[in-house]
Specification:
Blueprint lengths: L9 E2 L2 H18 L7 E10 L1 E11 L2 E9 L9 E9 L9
Antiparallel strand pairs: 1-2, 2-3, 3-4, 4-5
Length: 98
Amino acid sequence: MMCGAPSAAQPATAETQNMADQVRSQLEDKENKKFPVFEAVSFRSQVVAGTNYFIKVHVGDEEFVHLRVFQSLPHENKPLTLSNYQTNKAKHDELSYF
């Protein structure tokens, strides 16, 4: 993958789920609600000065959210950050870059 070029969508992995779990509380605080389910379904990545992960997460019923999670470079030793998110997504909605 070229620097700055986003990857193709891939099925979520255990590592992707771990990232989603780490930013779950950030999303719940911003949305002022608790999600009954929080299951990463798919993801894309983009290498920048760190890595952006675009993660589709099932949050219950037929509802999904799209997360943009930023992972800084290892030497910066910073936690994952929820950079942006989109709510009211459906299973068939393509995971976009936002």
